[in-house]
Design brief:
The complex is a heterodimer of chains A (171) and B (215). Chain A is mainly α. Helix content of chain A is 66%, strand content 0%. The two termini of chain A are 29 Å apart. Chain B has ten helices and no strands. Classes of the chains: A mainly alpha (171), B mainly alpha (215).
Amino acid sequence: MQPTIRPFWPPLIAGIALGLALLLTFLLTGHGLGASGFFTRLTAWFGGEVAGPATHANSYLGPYLKGGAPLATWISWEILGVLIGGLIGALTSGRFKLRLDGATKLSGSGRLALALGGGVLTGFGARLARGCTSGIGLSGGAPLAVAAFLFLIGFFIAGVAVSVLLRRAWV
Amino acid sequence: MTLPLYDNGVASGLLSGLLFGYALENAGFASPRKLTAQFRFTDWSVFKVMFTAIIVAAIGLYAAMAFGWMPAKSVYVPTTFFWATLTGGALVGAGMAVGGYCPGTSTVAFATGRLDALFFMIGMVLGTGLFSGLFDSLKGFYLAGEGPQAQTLDGLLGIPTWAVLVILIVVAVLGFALGTRLERASGGALTAEQVNGDDKLEIVEHVEIVDIRAR
């Protein structure tokens, strides 16, 4: 039998909860929440494993390997926490389900291709911007950084423009 | 006790992340349909939740400093590099429109059983590798248009912090009102039932989908 699917929190409540989590993070650590920083370190670690000399010599990823263990840092524990928090949220609300989500109008392989391609754009863009929606947008926004609002302007304009182009893939 | 604690240990990371992930999941941000609907203006949750969160945390930080619990300039504030910040933001926005997620939401989505989110994460590693490979030739662009160190909106506009907070609250109220109107015009924001219940996206039903498409 399917478990009952509980509704999402109203946006105002969810926003207050997210804001308090962000505030607590600032008070605990002196910085905000992040996500793309973990993937940078994951890339450095992976590069170090499969192409050690080239990754060590790389001017961007090389410094991450200097200490020897690029993943042994706060943000790895934070990302593990995000996975656990997301899992608890989904399991306690009937919203956990193994599935291929994504571009609704496409078949499985089309969805995976778009997910992969979107990930490439995001990975590249987050490095260029020195952070992502969490690291720059949210965590820069809380201390009112100009960079955060510039990032969010670019994020929304490009998101809307590309969505128009992809109307045949997404609902 | 002075704040912030500058505690970057395991427990601090796990706790911060757990609350972050739990809030994102309950906001509905594990669903790529809900996230991308913001860009079609049919679901304003991304704007509403993000703007509210920024304002709540901004007021909290402002109050902590105003009451003297926390010294000024004691938290990390990113510096603007005009072109890289704007273009990078645009690429992350484009990435969400194409793939359905951003880095944090793909992590939450994977935790809710969405296997496409795993592909998004693999893509991010590839994109990071691509950026790193091109970094030497991108450096000029990466460093162009550097703004003042850790510049904030109050500094840029030359107005007090509380005035910036008032402006943000006004923008949020207007955005909530406009967003709710546009959501109603398109049948309402996506519900948990809609993105979880009636979808035909379960991998076990995949054969069935192919059948329908073939007809």
